[in-house]
Amino acid sequence: MTIIQFPKDMKWGVATASYQIEGAANEGGRGTSIWDTFSKTPGKVVNGDNGDVACGSYHKYEEDIEIMDDLGVDFYRFSVAWPRIFPEGTGEVNQEGLDYYHNLVDRLLEKGIEPMCTLYHWDLPQALQDKGGWDNRETIEAFLQYAELMFKEFEGKIKHWITFNEPWCVSFLSNYVGAHAPGNNDLQLAMNVAHHLLVAHGKTVIRFRELGIKGQIGYAPNVEWNEPYSNKQEDIDACKRVNGYFMDWFFDPVFKGTYPDFMVKWFEEKGAVLQIEEGDMEIISQPIDFLGINYYSGGVGRYKENEGLFDHEKVDAGYLKTDIGWNIYPEGFYKVLTHINENYGNVPIYITENGACINDGVENGEVKDDRRTDYLKQHLVALQRSIESGVNIKGYLTWSLLDNFEWAEGYTMRFGIVHVNYRTLERTKKDSFYWYKQTVANNFFEV
Ligand SMILES: N=NNCCOCCOc1ccc(-c2cn(C[C@@H]3NC[C@@H](O)[C@H]3O)nn2)cc1
């Protein structure tokens, strides 16, 4: 038996996002988002699912907070729907939207739960998309106006701010792969979006400092680990490119003030050229207070000529998989965290997302999701190993509190430690909820 003990100041939490849980898409003065448009475009989301109702958390947030209170967490990471604050992206402010988030935050604080607020978790106001979205640099200024309003409105209540969730998903997944909203397939466009997101991030950090807002600010990239199948240089280089796609491209500009040259050259060969304006890199590389890391999976890969964007193929090495088909690969969690520490310094890190898609249902009022508990155990061992190795981990927030709208997979894929019946919106605490509750209370667990 092994005791996995965390530092006494370790923080624990759960995470969600506005479009995935709130519902009430046409209530409270909310404007249309690109995910309302995308999810209602035939063929984009499994079963034609959308976020009109989701988990009903817009009306059930007090019940959700009672569940978090029972869980005993320190943090609740949620996101603000920009279209609830500025229904048209800019211009008139929607007071009902501000009121909703004040009620949410006030209730959290009454329960002693710290709000960790993500300003952008993919639900761009459609009105801004209609003017070019993140390809248009004017959207940067619109985001800055939205962020400044939120900083001033929630000064003293919210002390942990995240500018962007998973800029790789917002840029490349959504504008090159096309699997997420707005669903484009254009590498140059994706590169422009990625750059503009980073500029918006940097400008927001600068404004946060200028306003003297009490608290901390960071961003939350998603990362994966691609391990070379062999020690052949071609396999090592192929995996370096894919890791560079998910990590270096979004870390180097913030931590080093430059894009990774090997990736710039590779993208140029693919026809995509960086379009940087004077001062952009200085803006992007503003020091941040913490780094959010979203890790789910990784695996083994190797060189394959003309395969995909990077002459790289994933190799099925026989790892167990979650129900969404991703490898269960805790070693990759350890590798990615030590890689970050070695290459970007001892920046304070919150794990802002880690969890498993396990689709077990309710039987006799229970959900026996042992595979999720096993996933959490294995990844928390990897996390503790990284702490032992000097990585500056400040907290761990599991994705997710609730089963919710999993983007293009709709409601078919369940990541929650609490089951949601999407017909009745009934919440059922899963076995993993009780395991996580005990781990939060003890700050250790046994393997
Ligand atoms: N060129 N590239 N090809 C790649 C092949 O693309 C095919 C699809 O890829 C992906 C990659 C990554 C994801 C993903 C989902 N989550 C979970 C959410 N995180 C934020 C929170 O909202 C959670 O719901 N994290 N990551 C989805 C699809």
UniProtKB/TrEMBL annotation:
InterPro entries membership: GH, Glyco_hydro_1, Glyco_hydro_1_AS, Glyco_hydro_1_beta-glucosidase
GO biological process, one term: cellulose catabolic process
Keywords: Carbohydrate metabolism, Cellulose degradation, Glycosidase, Hydrolase, Polysaccharide degradation
Reactions mediated catalytically: Hydrolysis of terminal, non-reducing beta-D-glucosyl residues with release of beta-D-glucose
Pfam family, one: Glyco_hydro_1
Highest taxon in the source lineage: Bacteria
Active-site residue list: E166 (proton donor), E353 (nucleophile)
Hydrolase recorded as keyword: yes
EC number(s) reported in the record: 3.2.1.21
Signal peptide (residue range): none
Binding positions for substrate per the UniProt entry: Q20, H121, N165, Y296, W399, E406, W407
Any GO MF annotation of the entry: beta-glucosidase activity
NCBIfam families in alphabetical order: BGL
Assigned protein family: Belongs to the glycosyl hydrolase 1 family.
Name recorded for this polypeptide: Beta-glucosidase
Organism: Alkalihalophilus marmarensis DSM 21297
